[in-house]
């Protein structure tokens, strides 16, 4: 189980361009905001991505990475449509979401299914998880993240 104070699990995945991205290649350079979201182009996920976009300039010395199980091509359309200034990682094989424990049973309209539970991890320059936001509520979330970054 991933916990605050633990080393962040390393991973590699393909970004929106199909380029391989490895988390450890960013460690020691920047603080990382790693956010997991259910699906591109859906209302809550679009709002969250656009909130990060709208406040992007406030994230100094910070890299924002979004992760979902959507394929790279869908990520590229999402980025193009909403002018997102950060990378989105494709986790079609669900290795990253399982490493971070965000692939969980969910319920919606009386149905039970497996999916990504919206979560955010703040990882410091030493690769340590400084803050976990589980079961994120989209409204006001980016402000919460920025507040924690001021304390790191």
Structure description:
With 152 residues, the protein is α/β, with parallel strands linked by helices. The protein has a single domain (12-151), classed as Glutaredoxin, CATH 3.40.30.10. It has four helices and nine strands, in the order E-E-E-H-E-H-E-H-E-E-E-E-H. It has a five-stranded mixed sheet with strand order 5-4-3-8-9. Strands 1-2 form a two-stranded antiparallel sheet. Strands 6-7 form a two-stranded antiparallel ribbon. The two termini are 23 Å apart. The model has no long low-confidence stretch (mean pLDDT 94).
How does the helix and strand content classify structurally? alpha/beta
CATH domain class name: Alpha Beta
Say what the CATH topology is: Glutaredoxin
CATH superfamily, called what?
Glutaredoxin
Order of helices and strands: EEEHEHEHEEEEH
Largest sheet: 5 strands, mixed
Strand share of the residues?
25-35%
How many distinct helices? 4
Instruction: From the alpha carbons, calculate the radius of gyration and give it in angstroms.
Output: 14 Å
Distance between the termini: 23 Å
Number of strands: 9
State the share of residues found in helices, binned by percent. 25-40%
Low-confidence stretches: none
Query: What would CATH call the architecture?
Result: 3-Layer(aba) Sandwich
How many domains in all?
1
Q: Which strands sit side by side, in order, in the main sheet? A: 5-4-3-8-9
Summary tags:
alpha/beta; Glutaredoxin; two-stranded antiparallel ribbon; 152 residues; five-stranded mixed β-sheet; 9 strands
Topology (elements, then pairings):
Blueprint: E1 12-14, E2 20-22, E3 31-36, H1 43-54, E4 62-68, H2 72-82, E5 87-90, H3 95-99, E6 103-108, E7 111-116, E8 119-123, E9 129-133, H4 141-151
């Amino acid at each position: 189980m991933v916990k605050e104070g633990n080393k962040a699990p390393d991973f590699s995945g393909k970004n929106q361009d199909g380029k391989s991205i490895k988390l450890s290649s960013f460690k020691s350079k920047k603080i990382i905001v790693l956010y997991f979201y259910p699906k591109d182009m859906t209302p809550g996920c679009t709002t969250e991505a656009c909130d990060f976009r709208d406040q992007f300039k406030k994230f100094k010395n910070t890299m924002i990475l979004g992760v979902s199980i959507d394929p790279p091509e869908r990520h590229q359309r999402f980025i193009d449509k909403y002018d997102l200034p950060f990378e989105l990682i494709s986790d079609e094989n669900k290795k990253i979401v399982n490493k971070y424990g965000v692939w969980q049973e969910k319920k919606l309209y009386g149905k039970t299914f497996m999916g990504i539970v919206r979560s955010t991890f703040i990882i410091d320059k030493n690769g340590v998880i400084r803050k976990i936001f589980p079961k994120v509520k989209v409204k006001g979330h980016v402000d919460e993240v920025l507040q924690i970054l001021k304390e790191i």
